[in-house]
Specification:
Layout lengths: L2 H12 L2 H6 L2 H12 L1 H4 L15 H15 E3 L8 E3 H8 L5 H7 L16 H4 L9 E3 L6 H6 L9 E3 L1 H14 L8 E6 L2 E6 L5 E4 L2 E4 H4 L4 H12 L4 E4 L2 E4 L4 E2 L3 H14 L6 H10 L7 E7 L2 E6 H6 L13 H6 L15 E3 L11 H11 L7 H11 L11 E2 L13 H11 L9 H9 L8 H10 L2 H6 L5 H10 L14 H7 L4 H14 L4 E6 L2 E6 L2 E6 L12
Parallel strand pairs: 1-4, 11-15, 12-14
Antiparallel strand pairs: 2-3, 5-6, 5-9, 6-7, 7-8, 9-10, 12-13, 16-17, 17-18
């Protein structure tokens, strides 16, 4: 491998958010690595999914969502994968991308997002303010095995992962368990978030552990408001699909242009709604600062009662009834007489639930109608602008004006088994440039299938980007380190001849002997010691600083000399 190829392939092992941003092939490679893993295929045997094949597509997705909610937590801390610094990463990526453009597009290199998105600077938000301004985290995207292994960490009772990990987990699980075809699944990354758009029903967004349907997108709840932020305020940096990717920063793209057009069309429809009373009231629930402009009126025993809108919304707390739907009459009956007025409150526009204003209509027509009904609102650009944005979000997607480079798509179906899919990917990972799939090849690297991968990228990743193992044992000599490693279970988080990296070994405090030997080598090399390995049947021997350390192994791998 030349140096640029080596850097890209080594990134398939560490899978940091930065690396995926620079090398967009990696995002879908991780999806495929999760599909190749036996872990998600085991979900099919879980009682929770009994009878799922008889369910409709949307119900299947909800079933997967609840499983993810029950078995995984969101995790984004600074300790799990350690820290690096800007200059180190800039030096790595200088050959691949314009650094000034990088600083405008990636949160770790200066981008802070829309000020509405964060009301504090990005470094304080993520806990980086206690470090030098050049320090940035290694936020690594976890494979499904690493996500599952979080249950071995203290204070973790379930699996875990960050947003990109959860997006890739969802994509693989929706294919394997919910039987959603790959060409219906699009992955999106912004500088600060990652989520998927699924072409099922009117569209479904996955957002960390949750999903958002079109009706949920407009329900005005706090959870949905959090889900909306990325598409409302962030540039979508890249989109990945089984036909390839498109990236805002690169002039070329590999995604099928027709598929990208379909994605843009479906997402745009998802982000636009007609308006009725329910939608308008959901908007005012979300944008609560505008509630003070309105009062709501209910008829009561032949006369009208008026209540300040913010006070009316307050009654939703602790009640199963809502102002925005058919239960609003029941909510009105729960209101205290002291909060109700018999005459309109001055200075407020009056909302009547059965007003003709709220006949279902296009959002553009509704905005005009509300200006006609409430002339005092016509000049309130902040209100009208936020109302328009709530009803019609215009996503900032990568421009379709790219040089589209045809690449072989990943084509297999949920009816195929894991072994058949693995054979299919293996068949297209090599060959001439017209028929070889880089994403398929990198999937085997992301999945750690070391019996079919070049070891050089693995060693580069293991010895350059695994700082947690080095820091944990900083004050211990190698004998003590080896002793501690041997105390941990001699079991890998990966099956077969797949390998964990040193920081996975120390984070989850377990590993096969080969993984522990490489972990010890990483620590010794960080101390500028000469390190060699020898193998015997069932054992691996590490020599460093005139000492030798032996570990048992059940993996059938020949570890090459990593000094070459």
């Amino acid at each position: 491998m030349d140096n640029k190829t080596l850097e890209k392939y080594s990134s398939a092992f560490t899978l940091s958010d930065m690396e995926i941003f620079i090398f967009p092939d990696l995002l879908y490679a991780l999806v495929l690595a999760n599909i190749l893993s036996p872990e998600i295929w085991k979900w099919r045997d879980d009682p929770w999914f009994a009878g799922i094949r008889k369910m409709g597509p949307l119900k299947k997705i909800h079933r997967v969502k609840q499983y993810v909610m029950d078995h995984y937590n969101f995790n984004l801390d600074l300790e799990t994968w350690g820290l690096t610094d800007k200059q180190t990463e800039i030096n790595r990526f200088r050959e691949f991308v314009d650094i000034d453009m990088l600083s405008k597009s990636n949160a770790l290199f200066g981008y802070e997002g829309d000020k509405y998105y964060f009301d504090m600077d990005i470094r304080r938000h993520f806990g980086l303010d206690k470090f030098d301004s050049d320090i940035i985290p290694y936020w690594k995207t976890e494979t499904v095995e690493a996500m599952n292994a979080f249950r071995f960490k203290s204070n973790h009772e379930a699996g875990a992962g960050e947003c990109v990990s959860l997006a890739c987990l969802y994509a693989a699980a929706l294919f394997i368990v919910a039987e959603v075809p790959l060409d219906r699944i699009f992955l999106m990354g912004t500088p600060l978030h990652s989520q998927n758009f699924i072409l099922v029903d009117e569209g479904v967004l996955t957002n960390n552990r949750r999903i958002v349907t079109k009706s949920m997108w407009y329900n005005g709840t706090e959870l949905t408001a959090l889900a909306r932020r990325a598409l409302e305020h962030e540039q979508v940096t890249y989109v990945a699909h089984n036909t390839g990717w498109i990236h805002s920063m690169y002039p070329e793209a590999t995604i099928n242009p027709q598929e990208y057009h379909l994605f843009r069309e479906k997402l745009s429809k998802f982000l636009e709604t007609t308006v009725n009373f329910e939608i308008f009231m959901n908007f005012l629930r979300d944008y609560s600062r505008f509630q003070k402009l309105f009062q709501i009126c209910f008829s009561c025993q032949g006369s009208n009662r008026y209540i300040r809108l913010e006070k009316a919304y307050g009654y939703e707390h602790g009640s199963k009834n809502r102002l925005s739907d058919k239960t609003n009459r029941k909510l009105f009956c729960e209101m205290d007489e002291e909060d109700l007025y018999t005459i309109p409150i001055k200075g407020r526009a009056t909302i009547l639930p059965d007003d003709d204003l709220f006949q279902t209509r296009a959002y553009t027509d509704f905005i005009q109608a509300i200006k006609d009904r409430f002339p005092e609102m016509a000049g309130n650009e902040e209100f009208l602008g936020d109302l328009r944005k709530f009803m019609h979000t215009v996503p900032r997607l990568p421009s379709p004006k790219k040089e589209f480079i045809p690449t072989p798509p990943v084509l297999f179906t949920p009816d195929q088994g894991r072994e058949e899919i693995m054979a299919s990917l293996a068949a297209i990972r090599h060959g001439d440039s017209r028929h070889a799939s880089l994403i398929a090849d990198m999937a085997f690297y992301a999945g750690r299938f070391m019996d079919s991968c070049d070891w050089k990228p693995f060693f580069k990743a293991a010895f350059e980007r695994n700082p947690v193992s080095i820091e944990l044992f900083r004050d211990m000599d190698l004998t003590a380190v080896a002793s501690r490693l041997r105390e941990w279970p001699n079991e890998s988080i990966y099956d077969g001849n797949r390998l964990a990296l040193p920081d996975e070994v120390v984070n989850f405090q377990r590993g096969d002997g080969i993984e522990m030997a490489i972990t010890l080598a990483n620590i010794a090399r960080s101390r500028h010691m000469a390190v060699t390995v020898e193998q015997r049947p069932g054992h691996i021997l590490v020599r460093a600083a005139g000492q030798k350390f032996e570990f048992p192994t059940t993996k059938i791998l020949t570890v090459p000399d990593f000094n070459k």
